[in-house]
Automatic annotation (TrEMBL), chains A, B:
It is an enzyme of class 3 (hydrolase). GO terms for molecular function: inorganic diphosphate phosphatase activity; metal ion binding; phosphatase activity. This is Phospholysine phosphohistidine inorganic pyrophosphate phosphatase. It comes from the Eukaryota. Phosphatase that hydrolyzes imidodiphosphate, 3-phosphohistidine and 6-phospholysine. Has broad substrate specificity and can also hydrolyze inorganic diphosphate, but with lower efficiency. GO terms for cellular component: cytosol; nucleus. It comes from Callorhinus ursinus.
Length: 270, 270
């Protein structure tokens, strides 16, 4: 691999994944990953632009930011790209009235959306809300539509909480896709439109931006397909086998966000 | 299409799907499809061999047969090929100790199976048992195995109950396949091994056998790939679009089992 100086040359903006990079979630609210609070603070003191780009679809942006602030992170709502507000916008633009299979924690993001007489289904990480009954209800709504539209907030396979690995929305998206013989539209990483939204909100071109994440497919592969660079941290859902992934090779692997920020402050634009 | 006489010539044995052909299931036990009780009786009085071949994995064979007998069907346990006993046999042969994600109604079929320290996961149509917690538990068992083995009792997309369409085990199989990056082994239609088991138990060669089912992929496509003929009934989960399916074309479409039996008694071997 080339030297870090070469790999990080010209980086002007940094997209940070949240879960597994800043903190590990959990029933108690989760815990910050050691060194990440300080790393974010140092990054924001630098000349680099910073934006948070999450696939968390279980909490409203306000709740997520509040939780991170209580853990000591320097973060505000306006700095976060998250799938629920992005979806809400799409629904309004296309005149879609969703049947919502989502967690109560994120319901406030859809307060302004008409959900009567649904003409599509929106699924997010519903957690315990993924009961058989709720899944069957969403399935029946789709089967009753002439042209079923399924929008999924991310397509993650699983994420890591303090208690262990947790099935993510992608698994349930696949279940509905298979049952109905359809393909979902994904709002969230690794969808190119979603990365482009985050880049636009940060005001940096893809070739000048770098993604830092723990998900080899969603964060690393997705960002690279958009022309960005990407570093994988060895925290969160990282598994050693990711470093020998058959399809995706990160521009670098680092132990954690603190190491990534050290390297960026040393080698990205001064 | 050729005349019925030509299409049914040389048929000596009939495999009958149960749900959607004999009866529509439901919370109250379901109801027989009009004409099916008499059709089975007439078939069994003929020279044709008859066997029931189901993917029902929510009930033990004993409970399923009891339910059908109470509805008036002439059927006994020894005449039924069903996925739970077939799986139980496979587990014993391969020394597999399953984590079971199944309905309580079928648990008795696994009474003789060691489930301590699991080295595989078996999923069946668990119905309400497909809670997030149960799915996540099965997922974690698979992720902890060096070589994850997932056995699925059928891979149906949905079935029909009196209350409407119901998500079947296939959707949940796909969810676990995606989350773990693995492929399940299917015990049930349309697996060729499963059809061959039913044919062997009936004592008829594939080219002399015909399948009667309501599932265009699982029953019709699966049986045809094994060298059998297959008729689709317009009952159960049948949808009009099945008759224009891009990949699978039945050897005939009939309104219900009664019509299928009329044709068979007229045109199959006398």
């Amino acid at each position: 691999m080339a030297a870090w100086g070469e790999r990080l040359a010209g980086v002007r903006g940094v997209l940070l994944d949240i879960s597994g990079v800043l903190y590990d979630g959990g029933e108690d609210g989760g815990t910050p990953i050691p060194g990440s609070v300080e790393a974010v603070a140092r990054l924001k003191l630098s000349k680099l632009k910073v934006r948070f780009c999450t696939n968390d679809s279980q909490k409203s942006r306000r709740d997520l930011v509040g939780l991170l602030q209580r853990q000591g992170f320097d973060i505000s709502e306006g700095e976060v790209t998250s799938p629920a507000p992005a979806t809400s916008l799409i629904l309004k633009e296309r005149g879609l009235r969703p049947h919502l299979l989502i967690h109560d924690g994120v319901r406030s993001e859809f307060d302004q959306i008409d959900t009567s007489n649904p003409n599509c289904v929106v699924i997010a990480d519903a957690g315990e809300g993924f009961s058989y009954q709720n899944m069957n209800e969403a399935f029946r709504v789709l089967m009753d539509l002439e042209k079923p539209v399924l929008i999924s907030l991310g397509k993650g396979r699983y994420y890591k909480e303090t208690s262990g690995l947790m099935l993510d929305v992608g698994a349930y998206m696949k279940a509905l896709e298979y049952a109905c013989g359809i393909e979902a539209e994904v709002v969230g990483k690794p969808s190119p439109e979603y990365f482009q939204l985050a880049l636009k909100e940060m005001g940096v071109e893809a070739h000048e931006a770098i993604m830092i994440g723990d998900d080899i497919m969603g964060d690393i592969g997705g960002a690279q397909r958009c022309g960005m660079r990407a570093l994988q941290v060895r925290t969160g859902k990282f598994r050693p086998s990711d470093e020998q992934h058959p399809e995706v090779k990160a521009d670098g692997y680092v132990d954690n966000l603190a190491e990534a920020v050290n390297l960026l402050l040393q080698h990205a634009i001064k």
